[in-house]
Amino acid sequence: MMRKYGVADTTFSRVDMGSIAIKTINKEDSDAEILRYTVPGIKDLPVAAKKLIEEGCNGVITLGWVGKTMLDKYSYLAASIGLITVQILTSTHVIDVTVHEDEADSEEKLKQIAIDRASKHAKNLVLLVKEGKNALTPYAGKGLRQGYNNAGPID
Amino acid sequence: MMRKYGVADTTFSRVDMGSIAIKTINKEDSDAEILRYTVPGIKDLPVAAKKLIEEGCNGVITLGWVGKTMLDKYSYLAASIGLITVQILTSTHVIDVTVHEDEADSEEKLKQIAIDRASKHAKNLVLLVKEGKNALTPYAGKGLRQGYNNAGPID
Amino acid sequence: MMRKYGVADTTFSRVDMGSIAIKTINKEDSDAEILRYTVPGIKDLPVAAKKLIEEGCNGVITLGWVGKTMLDKYSYLAASIGLITVQILTSTHVIDVTVHEDEADSEEKLKQIAIDRASKHAKNLVLLVKEGKNALTPYAGKGLRQGYNNAGPID
Amino acid sequence: MMRKYGVADTTFSRVDMGSIAIKTINKEDSDAEILRYTVPGIKDLPVAAKKLIEEGCNGVITLGWVGKTMLDKYSYLAASIGLITVQILTSTHVIDVTVHEDEADSEEKLKQIAIDRASKHAKNLVLLVKEGKNALTPYAGKGLRQGYNNAGPID
Amino acid sequence: MMRKYGVADTTFSRVDMGSIAIKTINKEDSDAEILRYTVPGIKDLPVAAKKLIEEGCNGVITLGWVGKTMLDKYSYLAASIGLITVQILTSTHVIDVTVHEDEADSEEKLKQIAIDRASKHAKNLVLLVKEGKNALTPYAGKGLRQGYNNAGPID
């Protein structure tokens, strides 16, 4: 059975994480059909995810980019609540990749974070959609990180 | 097919962004029908957007103005959550234009931000309503900004 | 056609804004029927508004009073989200009048703010209920304020 | 007609406010049937209130206790939003009694606040359930406080 | 009658709290059937809980791990609101275990908190699912703590 994935990204982002996610999904799932939805900013992502699910996507990855100010963070909070609401109402995973401009000092480092986070979470999405609720269980409690090196388990 | 757009603005705002949005929509879509809804402040925008969608709008732009205090920011957060909820429940875009009084030192600069942001986001709305989910994809990850100069992509 | 208005107020408030709102509504709309609902505090206002709408109110005004502490502000945020949710679910305006105890140094000034805000917003409610979405459009972008002097438009 | 009241409390609380609420309700309403629901902490109160209402309660009082850290306050915010959502979805009052550990310096004072707040709000609940939306109107704008002395009206 | 429990955990966590919860549930309820769902991080827990309930779970425990930054705390707030929403919509308990990396100075202490909190709350879940709303009433107001020593009741 072909699986349908949604990729929602923004024009606000300074890295084309949507393309990275698409490339990763295609590599991880040879039977993937992918729909892409591009919106202006993070507050537009929840409705994009909702519409992708209504078009039959079995799972969605959203790729957001957030500025440095307190207002940007409030927008992040509102968008996060919205993305969780979409998941609850549709019983479908929407993996939320967010890069914050204050996560790193240099643009180069920001870009590395974005690439690493988008590709690792695209893999997570494929695993959850293809194999279901125990696909990630071997890694439970392992301190995995996206955008950074893994923290690892304690002890 | 004629497309119906909703424009929701406030009496609290110090710039008539509603008129700017209407002018832009008419310029970008010659088949546009536009409904306007004016409310006192940002916390009244979600229900206005909801009602505009119930009257058949295919997409809505809201134009909010936010004061400088912490309480104004909490109101912004509540309104943002509400606008996202409206979108999720109706599967319709509500592009949220907000100008914060502490974004600039001078009134002149504030007004420039308001004009630029309202017109750019009105264009975004028309593109999404007319052409759908891939209309903005050529700009994905391009670091577009509304109210300011574009940040551009990294590299 | 007689119009039905809801007025929801609290025993926490130090000014009887409910009576001010009722007086104003009666003055502005000679065909008004008014239902009043008094609750302990702001977190009880959303359900009061919901119930007033279920009893047939075409619009509701809520009159809240908020203390000075951070906890009071979190309660304000939760109540604001709730009031917006009620509006979204019922497609009915709930105009939210809130006075914060830290808005002014003297009790006299606080009372003036409360009276001005409650009466101005009661007028807004009547206009929206009686005349609909374009009633306030002549004032769009005019920098109107409730509780204070109008800021006015820029330029 | 017998009225059914719900009392939801927590094991986290350091004062048995549930018993105080039950005693007060029985004193204020001789026809009261009372259901009690005890959960670990404040974030479990919304579902307890929802279930009590589903079992036929005409109104619910929840009795929460909140620690001193910022995280405790975020939990308070999430729980408050949840309690308001339950009320909106069921059109039923859920009077929310919360004691914050940083409200007082001594345990004795905290206990006094808890007892005063729980009993006063239990009375409020009975009045709203028995007599409806105008039961508290004589006290509108009177500056009533629970846990502290009344502030009183201005002027 | 066999009872079905859901255990939702994350790969972000640095302690395998899911296994601790499963072990505890099996010890406390010999008729337990347990479904496990592992997701990347806390913002994925609400949909996991929702899906576990849809698969027939009578109650769910979620096991989250939260970083030290303000952004991590906003994610915690969004996830908490989501978990409460799931409970309200399904009328089912989702006991929320969260460990914050800034709760302790050493990894060893963090791990102790995680183990204590996960096992105590797993017991709470079994009690609520097996015996219902009065199972915890003997401990109401007793100042119980998970992850730390009990605070105890005042007086």
From TrEMBL, chains A, B, C, D, E:
It catalyses: 2 6,7-dimethyl-8-(1-D-ribityl)lumazine + H(+) = 5-amino-6-(D-ribitylamino)uracil + riboflavin. InterPro entries: LS/RS, LS/RS_sf, Ribfl_synth_arc. Its EC number is 2.5.1.9. Keywords: Riboflavin biosynthesis, Transferase. It is an enzyme of class 2 (transferase). One of its GO terms (cellular component) is riboflavin synthase complex. It comes from the Archaea. One of its GO terms (molecular function) is riboflavin synthase activity. One of its GO terms (biological process) is riboflavin biosynthetic process. Pathway: Cofactor biosynthesis; riboflavin biosynthesis; riboflavin from 2-hydroxy-3-oxobutyl phosphate and 5-amino-6-(D-ribitylamino)uracil: step 2/2. It holds the Pfam family DMRL_synthase. The keyword Transferase applies. NCBIfam families: ribC_arch (TIGR01506). Belongs to the DMRL synthase family. This is Riboflavin synthase. It comes from Acidianus manzaensis.
